[in-house]
User: Fold this.
Amino acid sequence: MIPEHLKPFFWDVNAETFDPEAYPAYTIGRILEFGNEEAVRWLKATFSEDQIKEVIRTDQRLSPRSASFWALVYHIPPQDIAARTSRTPKKTPHLIC
Assistant:
């Protein structure tokens, strides 16, 4: 179950049944992207630094901005971050009039 103070960050799951430790990459990514200071404290107490760093390196769901910030915090070179290196530009649809 998700702690009460984290429920706002997990709006898309059933907070009563979701086990954050069963889905570490999803949980870590969600807190890194949307969490506040209290959520990050919980994250660091719940998951290892290695688990957090692995998500920063590999999770493409992190925004480039969040990934860059957390890479600075955890001393990860920018070129090692999937969210910064593997995004493809979105194509803008052309309107036909």
Notes: The mean pLDDT is 89. The chain is about 45% helix and 0% strand. Residues 9 and 34 are 6 Å apart (CA to CA). The chain has one domain: 4-85.
